[in-house]
Amino acid sequence: MRNTPEAYLYEIPFAEYPFWQPADTYDGNLAVMSLAFALSADRALNLDNEPEEDFDPALNADRFLKEAGFTGLRKDDYSKETSMYTVSATIGARTMTHEGEEPFTLIAVGVCGAYYKNEWQSNMTPGSGELHEGFMSAAQLVIDRISGYIMLNGIEGRVKIWGNRIFPRGSGLNPRGGNPGQRGRLPEGRRICLHLRDAGRRAGSPAGRL
Fold first, then answer.
1. Which pLDDT score is estimated for 4?
2. Side-chain half-sphere exposure of 188, counting CA atoms within 13 A
3. HEC string of 72-104?
4. Can you give the pTM of this predicted structure?
């Protein structure tokens, strides 16, 4: 991890079996993996003072997902000038197969929850409706990215999404702050199972299903 004043390396083995379980089944290994994923999605600090044009603020998520077997990584907004309209996030995919089971594509979606700079400003735009306007805007943006990712990468068949939230900015994948089921839709005909872990509430607790 490079989002603290000193760099730390933690080895968190990736386990496939939790994703073959129902999304509302608690699993300790999935809780640990999800917490590690949430932390890796945070913007990394440039501890070695590399030139800004050479430094990747999403390097933690990049390394985490690649070592877990995810490919086709998409990294959004980490290197942009942050504002209330940006949501720094990383998306990757991995094909999951198991004897006797229908294969599926696991899409990992990590939303930056620390060092998100001016992105916090969306927290201050509650709006006048029933749902928080800033959170819903972030949710819509993330859902659009997932939809685009599925279509651009030609992903067919069954899909499961592994998402994380650790701070309010993670409401881009938060059923309470920005519900993917109430605004925005993934491509028609998809079987979607949302493995969403709210590390800020209780690591590994089931937060919702889509």
1. 57
2. 0
3. EEEEECCCCCCCCCCCCEEEEEEEECCCCCCCE
4. 0.78
Place of tokens 């060092």: 115
- Cα dist from 36 to 39, 91, 162, 194, whole Å: 5, 15, 13, 18
Residue 11 phi, psi (nearest 5): -95, 110
**The residue type at 120:** W
Q: Please report, for residues 1, 16, 91, 145, 197, the alpha-carbon distance to residue 181 in angstroms, rounded to integers and kept in the order given.
A: 33, 26, 19, 15, 16
Hey, what amino acid is at 20? W
Q: How far is it, in rounded angstroms, from Cα 130 to Cα 148?
A: 28
Q: What is the mean pLDDT of the chain?
A: 75
CA atoms within 13 A on the CB side of 129: 10
Q: Would you put residue 117 in left (φ > 0), alpha (ψ -120 to 50) or beta?
A: left
